[in-house]
Amino acid sequence: MGYYPGNRKQPFKQLSQMSDIISKLRSVEECATLEKNALDRGQTELALRARRRGIEMRAQTHGAKTEAERECLEAVYAYEHVLSRQKRRTIKASRTWQMIKRHGIIGAVERAVNRPKETSGYRALVEMGLEQFAFEAVILRHPQVFSPESAQHSQQRIGEPPTSASLGP
Fold first, then answer.
1. Which terminus of the chain, N or C, has less C-beta within 10 A?
2. Using an 8 Å Cβ cutoff, are 142 and 67 in contact?
3. pTM of the complete model
4. In whole angstroms, what is the distance from residue 129 CA to residue 131 CA?
5. Which of 63, 61, 79 shows the shortest CA–CA distance to 119?
6. Cα separation of 137 and 33, whole Å?
7. Kind and range of the H or E element at 141?
């Protein structure tokens, strides 16, 4: 059973209480603080939810035009979060951002996924419980936005069986 941040004696009675706490977060900094405090207290589910909310907030400020673009940006921010945690300092996905600048967010994601080898961030995201933010997962949620080749690479990497919607016309 989890506990309220700052109060080890009062346990969460319901998942909705955890959701209430997450919904009250107003900044990326608040999310990071809650994540750290929750991890310090062994509340991994609350920490994961705070981490996800912080990633979502960062992507919202970037100005995506579609749901697929927003989710791709979330994937980049999630990858930066993973890198920063691994290196214990702030790390930017500079090569990814350069590719986004050159090819647009959708084009950059396709280029990353269509490489013969697994993207460097995919495994790290899975290990941190952020697999929903992997480029491959985004492509499978929005196959109509991406090329059939990207959808096929994503399915192979994640291991999901192909669907007619993701393989295109």
1. C
2. yes
3. 0.75
4. 6
5. 79
6. 27
7. helix 135-141
Query: Which one, of 114, 80, 117, lies nearest residue 97 by Cα?
Result: 80
> Following DSSP, what letter does each residue of 88-133 receive, concatenated?
TS----HHHHHHHHHHHHHHHHHHHHTSSSPPHHHHHHHHTT-GGG
Which DSSP letter does residue 1 get?
-
Output the pLDDT for position 58: 86
C-alpha distances (whole Å) from 5 to each of 26, 29, 128 are 16, 15, 21
pLDDT along the chain (169 residues), means of 10: 48 66 90 91 89 88 88 92 88 92 95 83 83 92 95 86 40
d(CA 89, CA 140): 31
pLDDT of residue 119: 67
CA distance linking residue 80 with residue 68, whole number of Å: 19
Q: How far apart are CA 26 and CA 14, in angstroms?
A: 22
How is the chain split into domains, by residue range?
Answer: 14-61, 66-169
Report d(CA 71, CA 168) in Å as an integer: 20
Structure token digits, residue 168: 């295109």
Beta pairing partners, 3:
11
